[in-house]
Write a structure and sequence with these properties.
By secondary structure, the chain is of the alpha+beta class. It has helices spanning about 5, 10-75, 80-85, 90-110, 185-190, 230-235, 265, 270-315, 330-370, 370-390, 390-410, 420-435, 460-470, 505-510, 525-535, and strands at about 115-125, 135, 155-160, 160-170, 180-185, 200-205, 215-220, 220-225, 245-250, 255-260, 415, 440-445, 455, 480-490, 495-500, 540-545, 550-555. It has a 5-stranded mixed beta sheet.
Length: about 575
């Protein structure tokens, strides 16, 4: 056995062994029956196609011969020939020729054969005047001049509605050229070919030209499906292997008729037999599956449950509870594993909760370093003194510091709104702008619909501080320094982007940015707080290029804040 079989679960080995031993003979027998049935159907279809084509050719040949006889009667009519070759002195003589000879002959044929749409004579006799559709000048003839060189009947057909034949009238004196032209009703002659079968077949008539004289295809999807071109039919294209094809010639005019059906249509006739074969195989499969499942349930199922729970634990789901009532070796193994997981889950929860508590204690310790009331009162006094002394910049700085520390401390809470965090960040940016004498530009924008959403406190300000202190302050060159702080909703989450065009971070520094411990409240601390609070799928993403700048993307789930 191969390595893949050795690595399979024991349940699958038992299942596959039973399945192979039981199903292989059934499947072989089913496949053999199907292909034998298909071969017999194709053989029968060839016989039906051959018989249908032969009958169709006989019918078509008889029809075309009828019109050839009509043409021959007119071509070899001595009275018509004399009337066409006579030299007329006046209109009376011409009228008598029309009345007594030409018109009766033409009208009689049209009455006898309604399929004749038009019957005309084209003449080069200058003394004969045109007479409606019955007699026309030879210059108006719709055929090439080489048609006058012999006295054969010429056929012309175009797929879509044109079927014509013409022949030169025999004349011993050859004083003038006279040609009989006949146009037949295309649908009356060929239309019945579209009803040979109900669906899935094609028929084409080749007249020696590049395009067929007639073609029709139909399938279950509608007319035009499964069609073959004339070159494919006549040259034996490889695609003909997918068709049953028969070909016969029409003796009347030498045209070839092609009749074909796709093999898939023939195979579809075996649907009922195929259904029975599949049903039999399906019943066998159901019985085998039932027996295999019963065996797996009684012998292998406890191990399968254990493996399933181990896979869940590998996916960090430690709340799995495994129970087994049996007292055998497998039951003892499962009970020991269950006790171990209960103890492990307890330990993990204790460590996880202690980490969260530690982060909370660190934040509260940071916030407790400043006496809020003393700070606010001091800043208020500075602001009042600055206003009295007309020192607007000092007043603005005092107000910004008051806003910054009020939103930073957030009454000791670790969760705030996007508006509170945004006000905190904007105050800090303005303070830094004043401290840097406006040496960097700032672009700030947040979607208004985000303002009422909930988020952790003190997330954006450390990122802005890092962008200014480590990025813009160390920018090389004379280019203008710029900071971007943006907020947007994306796919049910809130995304904040802090970007600068400072000196950037090297590849080694970028790899260690979220892993190394920093002296202050840096990127690692922000990332850890987010992941601890929201989960492993959220946190910071950093992109940077040395000399071009750094972009930090914050992604957290969207949660509505408390109603005002």
């Amino acid at each position: 056995m191969g390595k893949w079989y050795k690595n399979l679960a024991f349940r699958k080995k038992v299942f596959l062994s039973h399945l192979a031993v039981s199903l292989i003979p059934v499947v072989i027998l089913g496949v053999f029956c199907y292909f034998q049935t298909r071969r017999l159907l194709i053989q029968r279809e060839r016989e039906v196609l051959k018989e249908t084509l032969e009958q169709s050719v006989l019918r078509m040949d008889a029809s075309l011969e009828t019109y050839q006889h009509v043409m021959e009667n007119l071509v070899w009519d001595v009275n018509i020939r004399k009337a066409l070759e006579a030299h007329y002195q006046n209109n009376l003589e011409m009228y008598q020729a029309y009345r007594d000879v030409i018109d009766p002959a033409i009208q009689q044929m049209k009455l006898l054969y309604p399929q004749i749409k038009r019957l005309s004579i084209y003449s080069s006799n200058e003394t004969l005047h045109p007479h409606g559709e019955i007699l026309k000048k030879i210059q108006e003839a719709p055929w090439p001049e080489e048609a006058y060189e012999d006295y054969r009947i010429h056929w012309r057909a175009e797929d879509g509605g044109v079927l014509e034949l013409y022949c030169r009238i025999y004349g011993e004196e050859k004083q003038s050229i006279n040609v009989v032209y006949m146009e037949l009703d295309y649908q009356e002659v060929f239309g019945w070919l579209s009803g040979l079968f109900e669906d899935h077949y094609g028929v084409a008539i080749a007249n020696g030209g590049a395009s067929p004289a007639y073609s029709f295809t139909i399938s279950g999807d509608g007319e035009g499906a499964d069609s073959l071109s004339l070159p494919e039919l006549s040259c034996g294209a490889p695609c003909l292997k997918e068709y049953v094809l028969e070909q016969r010639g029409i003796p009347a005019n030498g045209w070839n008729v092609y009749l074909y059906r796709p093999l898939r249509a023939v195979s579809s006739s075996a649907i009922s037999i195929t259904f029975l074969i599949v049903a039999a195989v399906g019943i066998c499969l159901a019985v085998i599956l039932g027996a295999s499942m019963l065996l797996a349930k009684s012998v292998v199922l406890p191990l399968t449950h254990l493996i399933h729970n181990i896979d869940q634990i590998a996916g960090e789901n430690l709340t799995v509870v495994v129970r087994e009532e049996s007292k055998d070796e497998i039951g003892h193994l499962i009970q020991s594993f269950s006790q171990m997981m209960e103890r492990l889950d307890t330990l993990v929860n204790e460590v996880y909760k202690s980490k969260i508590a530690q982060q909370e204690y660190e934040m509260k310790a940071l916030q407790a370093q400043i006496n809020p009331h003393f700070l606010y009162n001091s800043l208020s006094l500075i602001n009042w003194k600055a206003i009295m002394a007309d020192q607007k910049e000092i007043s603005e700085m005092a107000q910004l510091l008051s806003t910054f520390y009020r939103t930073t401390l957030n009454k000791g809470k670790s969760v705030t709104t996007v508006k509170g965090e945004w006000d905190n960040t904007c105050s800090y940016i303005r303070i830094q702008s004043i401290m840097h004498s406006g040496k960097f530009e700032v672009e700030q924008h947040v979607e208004e619909g985000m303002m009422g959403c909930e988020m952790l406190n003190l997330i954006l300000q450390p990122l802005v501080e890092n962008a200014i202190g480590h990025g813009l302050d160390h920018k090389e060159g004379n280019g203008r320094k710029k900071l971007w702080v943006l907020g947007r909703e994306a796919g049910g989450c809130l995304e904040f982007e802090v970007k600068d065009n400072g000196r950037g971070i090297s590849e080694e520094g970028l790899k260690a940015a979220l892993k190394s411990n920093s002296k202050g409240y840096g990127l690692q601390n922000v990332n850890n707080r987010i992941r601890l609070y929201y989960g492993e799928g959220y946190g910071l993403q950093i992109e940077s290029r040395p000399g071009e700048g750094t972009k930090v993307l914050v992604r957290i789930p969207k949660r509505e804040g408390p109603a005002n």
